[in-house]
Amino acid sequence: MTEDKLQHRIALSLIKGIGPKLARNLIAYLNSESALFEEKLPVLGKVPGIGPALEQLLRNIDRKTLLKQAEEECQFIQKHNITPVFFSDPAYPGRLSYCEDAPLMIYYHGNACYDAPRALGIVGTRTPTDEGTELCEKLVEELARRHPGTVIVSGLAYGIDICAHKAALKNNLPTIAVLAHGLDRIYPSIHRNIAKEMIKTGALLTEFMSKTVPDKHNFVQRNRIIAGLSDAVVVVQSARKGGALITAELARDYNRDVLAFPGRPGDTFSSGCNYLIKSNIAALIESIDDLEYALGWETGRQQPKAVQGNLFATIETEEQQKIMETLIEEKELNLNLLSLKCSIPISKLSATLLDLEFKGLVKSKPGGIYRVVLTS
Question: What is the pTM of this model?
């Protein structure tokens, strides 16, 4: 990507009111991101369906100022080895790309591991009890033992967040911290050393440019990314109000599984978890066995040594062939990742998978996971 193109992409991401859907339509009509900043307003006002609103939106901003800010960010990115990813890039996290309010641009430092077969968000209170910390640590330890390579996603905050990150590092699992500020700082600063360790096998990720301070509303905004990067979100401990509950509700809106550890009635640290369970927002979890059951994550499964020669005998279309080959290679995938890897829209993919299930070639499991029915 040229620096000029990156500059225009960053500037586009700074315009409030332009999300992925509108941006995609604009780029398709204008043929480039730069046209949005170079064309005269009356020309942009003729964009079908959105022209007048777009023209009014652009009249209220200073396009030159946005480009200047974007230019400075390009310099920061280059100096500090930051990786920018635009929503239309192949490297954009597949799970996040299916969220309607996904950010146009993300920035990360470290090693990308966003499209691993399994990713679990773990969130909770910033002031957990010893019991809550033990539950978090044990869950991550069991995940590492039964499902090596599972990505742990959280927010680098005090409490359950940092406990999840530390447990992931201890058990050699990649972990992603979603930040509520730019990559020119670490907040809280006491977690700086943990952050340095994380980028060796995981990443620090944000949608915010450098010089963005960790304001309160930024934490609420970043919670949707934690949910969007995960197959499911586990709430370990939470009061009735707080960021963990916001993340859980966002995960539900994204059709992600939500699970919560229950607590004693009247216990402040568990009132939020109990509420999620009572409201059917979250499934009750007491151990990794409950997590595996809810998500369909099997353990100890022996992979067949060979596939019968007639496995593809009833395949009728190129899409079916592609799906079968991908599932055989990956063992199992959720719907979003399968769509990404096969380059098949979810609407068409769902119908094709149903047909393959009727043929007895594919099996669906809880959590939107699909696998091929193989015989040795």
Answer: 0.77
